[in-house]
Every structure is written in structure tokens, then in C-alpha cells.
Automatic annotation (TrEMBL), chain A:
Keyword Membrane in annotation: yes
Membrane topology: Single-pass type I membrane protein
One Pfam match: Ribophorin_I
Any GO CC annotation of this UniProt entry: oligosaccharyltransferase complex
Function of the protein: Subunit of the oligosaccharyl transferase (OST) complex that catalyzes the initial transfer of a defined glycan (Glc(3)Man(9)GlcNAc(2) in eukaryotes) from the lipid carrier dolichol-pyrophosphate to an asparagine residue within an Asn-X-Ser/Thr consensus motif in nascent polypeptide chains, the first step in protein N-glycosylation. N-glycosylation occurs cotranslationally and the complex associates with the Sec61 complex at the channel-forming translocon complex that mediates protein translocation across the endoplasmic reticulum (ER). All subunits are required for a maximal enzyme activity.
Subunit details: Component of the oligosaccharyltransferase (OST) complex. OST exists in two different complex forms which contain common core subunits RPN1, RPN2, OST48, OST4, DAD1 and TMEM258, either STT3A or STT3B as catalytic subunits, and form-specific accessory subunits. STT3A complex assembly occurs through the formation of 3 subcomplexes. Subcomplex 1 contains RPN1 and TMEM258, subcomplex 2 contains the STT3A-specific subunits STT3A, DC2/OSTC, and KCP2 as well as the core subunit OST4, and subcomplex 3 contains RPN2, DAD1, and OST48.
Pathway(s) the chain acts in: Protein modification; protein glycosylation
Transmembrane segments annotated in the record for this chain: 433-452
Signal peptide positions on this chain: 1-24
Name of the protein in question: Dolichyl-diphosphooligosaccharide--protein glycosyltransferase subunit 1
Cell compartment(s), UniProt: Endoplasmic reticulum membrane
Major subcellular site: endoplasmic reticulum
UniProtKB/TrEMBL annotation, chain B:
Organism field: Poecilia mexicana
InterPro entries noted in UniProt: Oligo_trans_STT3, STT3-PglB_core, STT3_N
Domain of life of the source: Eukaryota
GO molecular function: dolichyl-diphosphooligosaccharide-protein glycotransferase activity; metal ion binding
Gene3D superfamilies for the chain: 3.40.50.12610
Compartments in which it is found: Endoplasmic reticulum membrane
Membrane topology: Multi-pass membrane protein
Pathway: Protein modification; protein glycosylation
Protein name: Dolichyl-diphosphooligosaccharide--protein glycosyltransferase subunit STT3B
GO terms, biological process: post-translational protein modification; protein N-linked glycosylation via asparagine
UniProt keyword list: Endoplasmic reticulum, Glycoprotein, Glycosyltransferase, Magnesium, Manganese, Membrane, Metal-binding, Transferase, Transmembrane, Transmembrane helix
Enzyme Commission code(s) on record: 2.4.99.18
Enzyme class: transferase
Cofactors (names): Mn(2+); Mg(2+)
């Protein structure tokens, strides 16, 4: 018994604590100015609320409520403080729940405590997608598009409201019907409800407006945004977009004649729209599976690049299309680095068209190969998928790919994300080295291939020929070197004639003798090899040897002649005479050797 | 295709992430480069380096080969011609008496032969390439000629196995038999073989493989590398020209021959020293002029005939700016995005591949449809009136009909201009329903204006082409509904459809797509259903067993019930009939 009562007591305490948290903070909506903007295909509900604290203690936060019927369609919610100095501080939101009440609730954390009796002006903003339902759901080409919006006349709030007004902005003057709570006034495109006094907490009263809305009901059913970062200075962005006209579905035929000749035919259809790209976007392309889409225009402005995206065909209700748009960005604008640490700061989702709605988005960020310690900061909550690997040109172990998805995005989601990672700069050299290596291997293979003999059958004759050729090559060089020796000797002799240094002459003669002997023996060994190969060139080489002997003799004689001249044993004239004859004979012999060499 | 797949696979294995499409697009240009190299090698084998260079230049610009080697022409011929040329080269360099040490090429040539034999079988379904017949037939022919000339060597044995077996067998016989016996046997065999070869050639020539007289004939008497070379050039070129006269396919062979012929001319010039330098230079100039003109011609052909896409039309304004008419892709992409995935599209066969490729939808007939009756059925639907066409389209399960209409922009290749072919082909298969003469005026003219034949003015193709065109005034000088292609005001401006509706028309009306409506619910009967009264008395017991209703469903159902029961137990039904009869009579009483 006691246990049970204790349990009940705990329950009661808990409930009391809970209820005290909700109602005991004593907050009251003093004045609410609500605007329901239905002029596009989105419902944008903003409210300026003057909150006052009628409780005993100061409060840190207040609760923002979203109507239960609209909550599943909510794309964005935000709140900011509207101070006297017109400064807008965005506030942090945390989702909570309130027992026994329908709808979604967010706890808004105030920047400073709201003391008892104090007042605060806050501005809240909510965006809802797909809440304007086309009715009728199917229209012909000539008909106009009518939509229905269902909402709440009052601000849905956990606090009592003293006074509030609701202003509804429509897309056109034509309104089929609207709820008439409190005798609203209608001027052109605006319907004003209220003011309503002393509305109880959690009050709901169905607001229903049926009106004409021909604004483009475009929806991006899915978008895949790929950002590929290269440390060579480029960031490539590519968006693959599935687009659908989610307004009233086209019933019956599509007549090109009417569409071309009547200005109001197919008024709710979409011909083209503008996409705003970053100012530094280059090499923009716009294509689909079957190639470039030729119906687009690019305009480079000072602060942005505007692409007039025109699908291949006008989009009527229910029609869809698919395209790819991509561009390059210089990385210095988005990539920050400090040593090995890098930070990439870019938009998570970018502008596609004004008042865009994205049902499903996938973002892929491809970092350079070798990026490590990856850490992502996102401006709002997104669903991270496991990382993938991406292989492209010259990759070996793959580039890390961060993948994230999110549903139901609007323009307010165009915000920056930051990816931090570390990257070893040495890895930049990997790809060039890979190319160098590949070419090295290629050329090396070719070199080996050329050097090796892949013939299945051996050809002895060819081998002999090749051998002979290599031997004759050697003979040629040796003979030339031997002839060079003689020229060198001539110089020695000339120098001797001037300096009369017998020692130099003798040493010169000695080296000549020695070199000549080795060369001659080498040549004769080659000659012997030629003979064994059975080549008739051996005889020619023999002849060269014979002639060379004579040349050698002549050289020696001219040497001794010079000695005698220096010694004064002959007269100068006789020397010159004999020298002349010796030279001419030498010339003759050398030319004969040359002709033989040529014949080799 | 296998080659492209293999290249793509290997590249991707190496992380060179090329799209398979790019591989296919650039396959032909890459292989044409290889062809030029192998042509050079082949001609160098036959003559010398200079001739080889010239031959490579020729093959680079020969229009017949360019058509197969432009980027985007993905055909097996792109590879096959390279393989053919390379095989020729390897075979020539391998055949006796070659330079020593050329057995590797002969081994390679065997591999190439295998490949070339292998490719067409894999690619057979797409389009069989007849050219490989050259290689597998000409090499044995060449060997055969070699044998006749007693030039048998071991290398030939390595190269050509089968024929050599027979030859070796003959050698064996020669040892065993007496000389007389052998000779008779040999000549008998030879004449038999010759007959077969001769008859084959005759047969091939007869069955449409016509000869092409425009081809070069190389009557070379000089023998650059001994007998076999000239033997090759004559024995290979002659049959390839006479029997397998695919003119453009042999043109690459001629490219290398042309290089050779050119060389002859210059040789002759050298020989006739007496002509003097003036004539020599004139001849050289003329030759150069000819070559340059040929190069210009080839460039023109390449840029005009092979490199401009026919899907995107371009027009130029007065100030030189270009207008792109991308109507084809607009309509095809609409089909791709906004019709059911399994929708069937009826169009004339010309657009079959385009619809399959760009719109990704099923077509009834396409560019590779061999079944004439199929094409004729489509032609019949196009040339019948709407209700008859609807029957055909329903029986073919058609969801959309696509036509090309050039009347707005003056595009002359549209379906109305092709229409007579549809009529003729339809008449060929259905002469009772379609007659070509019905589509002409009594004077025998094909006109779309008021004077045109009523059959034409009410046929499906006409109605689809000109639906709502009668209201359209293109400029102020012409009346509404003025067809720019045929320069006539159309004759039937009041076109209404019962079974079709306009689904899409492209920006310049070039492509028009119509949706075939499904059968509507049956129209309400103008009289009441006959109420079934059980008291009704049947006069005839044989005719109706169960009371017949007006609608076919229950009628057929009852018939089915009857037939099944009847087939199972004839006795049962009799008793049932009897009991029913008895009941009725008792009720009447």
C-alpha cells in the first residue's frame, strides 16, 4: 500500500513539475502580428510576437509551437530577437514535446534572461512546402491553376494571447472562397483577419483559402550535389537535378499552337528559370543524358553568374525533366590552409531557382586522395552516410567521399558548411611521379624489346653479318686512332724542331712505338677473328696493316730526318726536299687506307 | 564491341575513369591511326619507305575509310580494317622469301587471324562484317599459289597448317606412287580444286557481290623483293576486286597500292632522262596538284558528310548569328521524361534508332527491321483513314505516334515527303487496302492542297501533320496553313481527331507526337436491356440454352460455360436441359 501511494506521489510530483514548467513561467503573448505569405508555391508564416513575463521568476527560454497539420511539411523554422536597435540575433532552437498536445514544439533559448514583468519582441519564421494543394487537381491547358490552403486563424502557442492579427498575402486577386472568421477585410491580394482578443493557449480554428495561383510550382524531387576538391587549384561542382511541376496536372492535349499564339495559354507552366552561381564560376555546362541543352543563356554579373536554365520543353503540371549543371571554381576562394591542415568552406546547397523546394538532397564531397582526420561542421542537422571511395584518373587507393542527405530544403538552407582535414603535401607529387614511372616502364620495355631477339628460328648468316659488322666497326675506330697517333707524332717533331729538346722527342717516339704496337696487335687479332668468321674483309684489313707499316716507316724516317736537321747533319734545303717527298708518299698511303676503310 | 568493352575495363582497372561512351566514340579514330601505321608498314614491305609514307597519307584521307573512322562511328569495321591491314602486313613480311627471323610476325598473324575470325561471330547479331572473308580466304589462296610455284618452305607450314597437310600428303603419295599415277592424280586434284575455286568466284560474283571497275589495278612487273611480292599484289588484289567487290572496303587496300603506283611513275621519269627537267617539273606539279585537290576533296567530304550531326539543325540569320533548332532532342527527351516507361511508339522506321537511343522507348520498327510486313503495317496505319488506322494501332498496342513535320520551317526531309514510300511499301503487302494511285490527283500529281486526292487529305499521316496547322499564319504574305516545304496552302484545314490527341509538338513543329486514346467505355445503348423473365417460353430448344443477353460478355461467358460443360459430360447437360424444360412447362401450367 505504501509503495503504491509513494508511486502515485512521485507521479503527481512529476506532473506538477512538468506543468509548472509549461505554465508557471507565466509568459503571455501580448501582441502578435502574423503574416501568412501564400504568394508563391510555398507557405511562409512569419509572426512578430511581443512576449511578456507575467510570472514570478525570470525565464531563459520560451516554446514555439507548430500546427499539427502543417508540421510534417515544415521545411524551416527560425526565430530571432527584434531589438530596438534593429539587430537580429538568431536564436538557438531545440525540439521538445508537450504532453497531451498535438503538433511540434521547439524550445527557443533566449540570449539573456527575461526578468519578471519584462517584455521582449521576437520574430519567428516558418516555411512549409507542398501545403498548397491544387484544386482541381487536373486542369486543361487553357485553365488557370487554383489552390487550397488550410491553416489556422490563430497563432498556435502554448501561451495565452492578448491581441493578434493575421494577414494573408495571396498570389492574385482571384479568390474562390475563404473562411470568414471575425469578418475579415479583403483588399486586392491581401486578406486581414482580426484583431482577435484574449485567445486561449493551443487555440485552433481552421483557415481555408481557395484562390488562383499561377506561380511556378516547381519542385526538385532530387538533387545530387557533387563537390570535387583538387589541390591543384580547382573545385568542380556538379548538380544532377530531377525537376517536376507539382501543380495541377495537365489534362488532355498539349497544343503547341495555343501555347505559341495565346499569351495566357498554359499560364501555370514553366518555361525557364534563373540559377545563380558563384561569381567565380567558370566552364559552366548544362546538359542531360542526350547531350548539351542548347536552350540556355549565361550572363556574367559582377557578383554572380546567372544561368537562364530553359528545359528542353516547357514544364506543364505533372511533367518532369532531368538535367546536369556543373562548373569550376578556383580553390583559393573556398579552401583555407595552415600547414598540413585544410578547411573547405562552401555552400551545402546552392541556389537553383527562387523559392526553391528540394524534396531530397544528396551532397557528396570528394576530397583529395590521402586526406585524413576529416571533420565536418554543418549549419543544420543532416544525415551522414558512411564514407565512400572515389576513383578517378591516376588514383591508387581512392579519394575519400563524404556523403550526406537531407529532406525538404528551402532557400533558407543555403548556408555554408566547413570540412576540416589534414593532407600531407608530399602526396601532391604522387600523381606526377606515377605518370613518370609509367612512361619510364613503357620506354624501358621498348628498349628491352628492341634489344632482344624474339625470332623463333635462328639465322646464322645474319648473325655472322652482324658480328662482322661489329668487328669492322672496331677495326675502323682502331685504324683511325692509329692514324691519329701519326698526327700527334708530327706535332711532337715540329715542337722538337723549335725547342731542340731531344728528351721530348725520344719520349714522344717511345709512346708512339708503344701505342702503335698495342693498336696493331689489336687490329690483327680482330683480323684473325674476321678470318674465322669467314669474311673476305680479313684480307682488306691485312692490306691496311701492310700499308700502315709503310706509313709508320715514313713517320720514323721523317722523325730521324728532323733529328739530323737539328743536329746540323743536313742542310735545310735538303731537309725540306726530303720532307716534301716523305709527306706526299704518306698522303698517298693514307688515302689508300681511307679508300680501303670506306670499302669495309 | 568486345574490344571497346575490354579497353574500358582495362582503363577502369587502372583508375582511368573514362566513360564507356567515350571509349566507343574514340575507338574508331584510335584504330584509324593504327591503320595508317600498318598501311605504312605494309607498303614499306612491298616497296620502300617513301611509298609507305605516301600510302599512309592516302589512307589518312580516303573518304571511304574516313566514314568508318570519324569519332562516333562505332562499328566493327573500324577495328576490322586495321586488323585486315595489319594481317596483310604480317603475312607479307612472313611469307617466303622473307628477311630472316620473321617468324614472330607469322605467329602474330595467326593470332590476328583468329581474332578477325572471332570478332564477326560475336558481332554477328549487330551487323556481320563480310570483310574478314578476305583474310581467311586470301591467305590460303596465296599459299596455294606459292605451292603451285614450288615455293614451299617450313615457315609456310607454320603459317598455314591445313592446306599444307594436304600438300605433305601429296608429297607422301609422290614417294609411294609411280610418276605416271601421281601425275594423273595430281592434275585431277588440281583441276578439281581449280573448278571449285572458279565456281565459287562465279557464284560470289553472281550473288550480288558486283565488281567494281573503278578500283585500281596494280599490274606491277617489277619484283621488289622477289617473286612473292608481285604475286601478292596480283593474287590478292585481283580476287578482292573481282569477287569481293566491296568498293569502299577495298579502298584502303588501294591506298597502299596507290602509293606504290605513284612510285612507279617517278621511277619511269628517272628512266626517261631524255624528257628534260621542264617536263619533269610539270609532271611533278600536276601530280602535286592532283594530290592537293584530293586532300581538299577529302577534307570537304569529312566535314560535310561525316561530321555534321543530322539531329541538330542549324540556321544562320542575316547577321551571321546561329540559330539552333533542337526540336528532335526536345521531343525525344519529352518522350523519355513524360511518358510511361513501357510506352510503345509508332513512327516510320527512320527514327527508330533515334527514339530507342534518345527517348529510351520501344518502337515498332527501326533502322534494322528486316521484316517487311512489319514496316508495311506501320505504313498502312499511316496511310489509312483514322478509324482504320486505329484498328491497326490497337492491334499493335501503340501508345504514341511520332511524326516529323517540316512545313513550319521548310525542312524537306519530313514524313509527308517520305509518305509515298510508306504507301508503296504498304501496297506491297496489302494491295487490297492501299493503292498508290489513290494518293495522286487524276493528273498523277502528289499534292497536299485542295486539289489533292481526298484519300490523301484524310489519311492519318496527313491529319497528324497538319492538325491545327490550318489556323497558323506564318507570315503576312501567305494564307493561313501555308506549307513552306511544299509551297502550298493545305487542302484540309478542318482536322478533328476521334481516337488520337496531340500529346506534344516541338517548338518549331518539327516533331509531333500524338497519343492513342484507350477504348472508351462502351456507349450506352439506345434501347433498354431485355429483361429476363423466367416465364418466357422457348420455341426452339436447340438454339439457346441460357437466355441470351445483348452484351457480348455474358453471351460469350454462357457459351463458354456451355461448351465446357458440354465437352465434359454431354449426358449431364441433357438432363439439365430436360429438368429445366420440365420446370418451365410446369410453371406455364
Amino acid at each position: 500500500m505504501t509503495r503504491r501511494s509513494a508511486f502515485v506521489a512521485v507521479c503527481l510530483l512529476f506532473v506538477a513539475a512538468l506543468s509548472s514548467e509549461v505554465s508557471a513561467d507565466g509568459l503571455v503573448n501580448e501582441d502578435v502580428k502574423r503574416t501568412v505569405d501564400l504568394s508563391t508555391h510555398l507557405a511562409k508564416i512569419t509572426a512578430e510576437i511581443v512576449l511578456s513575463n507575467h510570472g514570478q521568476s525570470s525565464v531563459q527560454s520560451f516554446i514555439l509551437a507548430v500546427d499539427a497539420d502543417l508540421a510534417p511539411h515544415m521545411a524551416y523554422i527560425g526565430a530571432s530577437v527584434k531589438g530596438d536597435e534593429e539587430e537580429h540575433g538568431t536564436l538557438e532552437l531545440q525540439q521538445t514535446s508537450i504532453q497531451g498536445q498535438r503538433g511540434e514544439f521547439y524550445k527557443v533559448l533566449l540570449p539573456s534572461t527575461l526578468a519578471a514583468g519584462a517584455q521582449l519582441k521576437v520574430k519567428t519564421e516558418m516555411m512549409f512546402s507542398h501545403v498548397l494543394k491544387p484544386f482541381p487537381t487536373q486542369i486543361t491547358q487553357a485553365e488557370r491553376q487554383l489552390v487550397v490552403f488550410q491553416g489556422n486563424h490563430y497563432l498556435y502557442s502554448p501561451y495565452p494571447t492578448r491581441s493578434q492579427t493575421t494577414r494573408v498575402r495571396l498570389a492574385s486577386k482571384t479568390v474562390e472562397s475563404y473562411t470568414k472568421l471575425g469578418n475579415p477585410s479583403k483588399t486586392d491580394e491581401i486578406i486581414e483577419y482580426g484583431p482577435f482578443r484574449d485567445v486561449a493557449p493551443f487555440s485552433e480554428d481552421a483557415l481555408k483559402i481557395h484562390y488562383e495561383n499561377n506561380t511556378p510550382f516547381l519542385t526538385i524531387t532530387s538533387i545530387t550535389r557533387t563537390i570535387e576538391v583538387s589541390h591543384w587549384g580547382n573545385i568542380a561542382v556538379e548538380e544532377t537535378i530531377d525537376l517536376r511541376h507539382t501543380g495541377a496536372i495537365l489534362k488532355g492535349p498539349f497544343s503547341r499552337y495555343d501555347y505559341q499564339r495565346q499569351s495566357d495559354s498554359g499560364i501555370s507552366s514553366v518555361k525557364s528559370f534563373k540559377t545563380i552561381l558563384p561569381a567565380s564560376a567558370q566552364d559552366v555546362y548544362y546538359r542531360d543524358e542526350i547531350g548539351n541543352i542548347s536552350t540556355s543563356h549565361l550572363q556574367v554579373l559582377d557578383d554572380s553568374v546567372e544561368v537562364e536554365v530553359r528545359p528542353r520543353f516547357p514544364l506543364f503540371g505533372g511533367w518532369k525533366t532531368h538535367y546536369i549543371i556543373g562548373y569550376n571554381l578556383p580553390s583559393y576562394e573556398y579552401l583555407y590552409t595552415l600547414g598540413e591542415q585544410y578547411a573547405l568552406k562552401m555552400r551545402l546547397v546552392d541556389h537553383v531557382y527562387d523559392d526553391q523546394v528540394i524534396d531530397y538532397m544528396t551532397v557528396k564531397i570528394i576530397l583529395p586522395e590521402g586526406a585524413k582526420n576529416i571533420h565536418v561542421d554543418t549549419p543544420y542537422k543532416i544525415d551522414r552516410m558512411p564514407n565512400q571511395l572515389h576513383y578517378t584518373y591516376l588514383d591508387t587507393f581512392g579519394r575519400p567521399v563524404l556523403v550526406a542527405t537531407k529532406n525538404n530544403l528551402v532557400e533558407q538552407h543555403i548556408q555554408d558548411f566547413v570540412v576540416h582535414y589534414t593532407f600531407n603535401k608530399i602526396l601532391m607529387l604522387q600523381e606526377p611521379l606515377l605518370v613518370v614511372g609509367a612512361f619510364y616502364i613503357l620506354f624501358f620495355t621498348v628498349i628491352i624489346y628492341v634489344r632482344l631477339d624474339f625470332a623463333i628460328t635462328k639465322d646464322p648468316a645474319a648473325e655472322v653479318r652482324m658480328k662482322v659488322a661489329s668487328i669492322t666497326e672496331q677495326v675502323l675506330t682502331l685504324v683511325n686512332r692509329r692514324l691519329g697517333l701519326y698526327r700527334h707524332m708530327d706535332e711532337v717533331v715540329n715542337r722538337y724542331k723549335q725547342s731542340r729538346d731531344t728528351g721530348a722527342l725520344n719520349s714522344g717516339r717511345k709512346t708512339l712505338e708503344a701505342d702503335h704496337r698495342t693498336l696493331t696487335s689489336e687490329i690483327s687479332s680482330l683480323q684473325a677473328r674476321l678470318k674465322t668468321e669467314g669474311s673476305d674483309l680479313a684480307e682488306k684489313v691485312g692490306e691496311i696493316q701492310k700499308l700502315d707499316g709503310q706509313v709508320k716507316e715514313l713517320v720514323c724516317r721523317s722523325c730521324s730526318e728532323a733529328e739530323r736537321l737539328v743536329g746540323g747533319k743536313v742542310k735545310k734545303e735538303t731537309y725540306i726536299e726530303s720532307e716534301k717527298s716523305l709527306t706526299s708518299r704518306r698522303q698517298e698511303l693514307i688515302s689508300r687506307i681511307d679508300s680501303l676503310l670506306d670499302a669495309l | 564491341m568486345v574490344t571497346a568493352g575490354l579497353i574500358h575495363y582495362i582503363l577502369n582497372l587502372l583508375h582511368v575513369t573514362v566513360h564507356i561512351r567515350d571509349v566507343c566514340v574514340f575507338l574508331a579514330p584510335v584504330f584509324s591511326g593504327l591503320t595508317a601505321i600498318s598501311t605504312f608498314l605494309l607498303t614499306r614491305e612491298l616497296w620502300n619507305q617513301g611509298a609507305g609514307l605516301l600510302a599512309a597519307c592516302f589512307i589518312a584521307i580516303v573518304p571511304g575509310y574516313i566514314s568508318r573512322s570519324v569519332a562516333g562511328s562505332f562499328d566493327n569495321e573500324g577495328i576490322a580494317i586495321f586488323a585486315l591491314q595489319f594481317t596483310y602486313y604480317l603475312w607479307v613480311s612472313a611469307s617466303p622469301p622473307p628477311l630472316p627471323g620473321y617468324s614472330l610476325p607469322i605467329f602474330l598473324s595467326c593470332i590476328i587471324l583468329l581474332l578477325v575470325n572471332f570478332f564477326p561471330f560475336i558481332l554477328f547479331l549487330v551487323s556481320a562484317w563480310g570483310g574478314y572473308v578476305f583474310i581467311i580466304n586470301l591467305i590460303p589462296l596465296h599459299v596455294f599459289a606459292l605451292l603451285l610455284m614450288q615455293r614451299y618452305s617450313r615457315r609456310v607450314y607454320i603459317g598455314v597448317f591445313a592446306l599444307l597437310q594436304a600438300y605433305a600428303f601429296l608429297q607422301y603419295l609422290k614417294d609411294r606412287l609411280t610418276r605416271q599415277e601421281f601425275q594423273t592424280l595430281f592434275f585431277l586434284g588440281i583441276s578439281l580444286a581449280a573448278c571449285i575455286v572458279f565456281l565459287t568466284v562465279i557464284y560470289l560474283t553472281y550473288t550480288g557481290l558486283s565488281t567494281s571497275p573503278s578500283l585500281h589495278r596494280c599490274r606491277s612487273t617489277s619484283r621488289p623483293r622477289g617473286c612473292p611480292s608481285s604475286l601478292i599484289s596480283t593474287s590478292w588484289s585481283a580476287p578482292s576486286q573481282q569477287a569481293f567487290g566491296f568498293a569502299s572496303r577495298t579502298s584502303m587496300m588501294n591506298a597502299c597500292l596507290a602509293g606504290k603506283v605513284r612510285k612507279h611513275v617517278s621511277e619511269q621519269e628517272k628512266a626517261e632522262e631524255g624528257l628534260g627537267p621542264n617536263i619533269k617539273s610539270i609532271v611533278t606539279m600536276l601530280m602535286l596538284m592532283l594530290l592537293m585537290m584530293f586532300a581538299v576533296h577529302c577534307t570537304w567530304v569529312t566535314s560535310n558528310a561525316y561530321s555534321s550531326p543530322s539531329v541538330v539543325l542549324a540556321s544562320y540569320n542575316h547577321d551571321g548569328t546561329r540559330n539552333i533548332l533542337d526540336d528532335f532532342r526536345e521531343a525525344y527527351y519529352w518522350l523519355r521524361q513524360n511518358t510511361d516507361e513501357h510506352a510503345r511508339v509508332m513512327s516510320w522506321w527512320d527514327y527508330g534508332y533515334q527514339i530507342a537511343g534518345m527517348a529510351n522507348r520501344t518502337t515498332l520498327v527501326d533502322n534494322n527491321t528486316w521484316n517487311n510486313s512489319h514496316i508495311a503495317l506501320v505504313g498502312k496505319a499511316m496511310s489509312s483513314n483514322e478509324s482504320a488506322a486505329y484498328e491497326i494501332m490497337r492491334s499493335l498496342d501503340v501508345d504514341y505516334v511520332l511524326i516529323i513535320f517540316g512545313g513550319v520551317i521548310g525542312y524537306s526531309g519530313d514524313d509527308i515527303n517520305k509518305f509515298l514510300w510508306m504507301v508503296r511499301i504498304a501496297e506491297g503487302e496489302h494491295p487490297k487496302d492501299i493503292r498508290e494511285s489513290d494518293y495522286f490527283t487524276p493528273q498523277g500529281e502528289f499534292r497536299v492542297d485542295k486539289a489533292g486526292s481526298p484519300t490523301l487529305l484524310n489519311c492519318l499521316m496527313y491529319k497528324m501533320s497538319y492538325y491545327r496547322f490550318g489556323e497558323m499564319q506564318l507570315d503576312f504574305r501567305t494564307p493561313p496553313g501555308f506549307d513552306r516545304t511544299r509551297n502550298a496552302e493545305i487542302g484540309n484545314k478542318d482536322i478533328k481527331f476521334k481516337h488520337l490527341e496531340e500529346a506534344f509538338t516541338s517548338e518549331h513543329w518539327l516533331v509531333r507526337i500524338y497519343k492513342v486514346k484507350k477504348l472508351e467505355n462502351r456507349e450506352a445503348l439506345d434501347h433498354k436491356l431485355r429483361s429476363v423473365v423466367s416465364r418466357q417460353k422457348y420455341t426452339s430448344k436447340k438454339v439457346s440454352v441460357f437466355p441470351l443477353r445483348r452484351d457480348g460478355f455474358s453471351c460469350s461467358l454462357s457459351f463458354m460455360m456451355l461448351s465446357t460443360t458440354y465437352s465434359k459430360t454431354p449426358q449431364k447437360i441433357k438432363t439439365a436441359l430436360n429438368s429445366r424444360e420440365r420446370k418451365e412447362t410446369s410453371n406455364n401450367q
